[in-house]
Amino acid sequence: MKIFIVGLGLIGASYAEGLHKNGHIVYGYDQKQENIKEAIELGFIEKDNELDKISKVDLVILSLYPKDNVAFIKEHKSLLTPGQMITDVSGTKVWMMEEIEEILPEKISYTSHHPMAGKETSGFQHRDYRMFRHANFLIVTGKKSIKKDQEVLRLIANNLKFGKITVVDAKTHDELIAFTSQLTHILAISLVQSDHLNETKHATGDSYRDLTRIAKINENMWTELFLENKDALIKKLNDFIKELKHVKELILVEDKESLTTYLKEAKEKRKSFDVH
Question: What are the chain's domains?
């Protein structure tokens, strides 16, 4: 398959390298020319790599920030040809998918997806196609989706060694991500920001390090993602604050029995995630 990847950051470059190794012909675009040059030198982007190659490919993968994905399609939609498929790897979907669906030419299909993998580091230099192995893979359908799109995305997922593949709509996706990804990043950030002791860095153990690893964050990308998914994220924040207040009250009144039950329920619920 011929694939054009727009954006050679952490995810885009990792896709490019991994898909090239699986026999696909890969072209790429990035605002940083040095990233394109290095990708060509390393051999996972074609040497004959121009923007107009978009017209020649089967699949275009958008790997920019959501607003930049929309802007790219607006500017370059004339390069798209009937029968092509568009997808993206963005962390929020509802707003972006609606915008792209409005501007896509006829006979161009569009099904989004979300690779549930990443690092606390970002950028081309940190690419690693092996990080996708066994990770969850969400296929996000919309108004421009056709049946063949899912076949293409399942092939991509299998090539990159993803694990569980789940199909959802955009609204469900954003609600899930507000909880499993965005809220967890906010918790890590808030935990780090709540520290007021000079000695903390010398007193941390695995629990603190594990919980706060993702606080080493790409602040520009996550600010945009938080704001674009504001409604779903605020709801999940309110749910969490409610639980935090509840456990605080149990501790305040020293309700040992209820606190023990609360902890046990959480333990059993979390253990159920590990059952396949």
Answer: 2-168 (3.40.50.720), 174-272 (1.10.3660.10)
- Closest by CA to 122, choosing from 226, 214, 46, is 214
Q: Cβ contacts of residue 14 below 8 Å, gap of 6+?
A: 127, 128, 129, 131, 132
Bridge partners, 116 (sequence order): 136
As a whole number, mean pLDDT of residues 102-121 equals 93
Say yes or no to pLDDT of 166 above 80: yes
Q: Is 201 exposed, middle or buried (0-12, 13-18, 19+ CB in 10 A)?
A: exposed
Using DSSP bridges, classify how beta strands 136-141 and 112-116 pair: parallel, antiparallel or unpaired: antiparallel
| Average per-residue pLDDT for the chain | 95
Amino acid at 254: E
Question: And the tokens for 31?
Answer: 């605002």
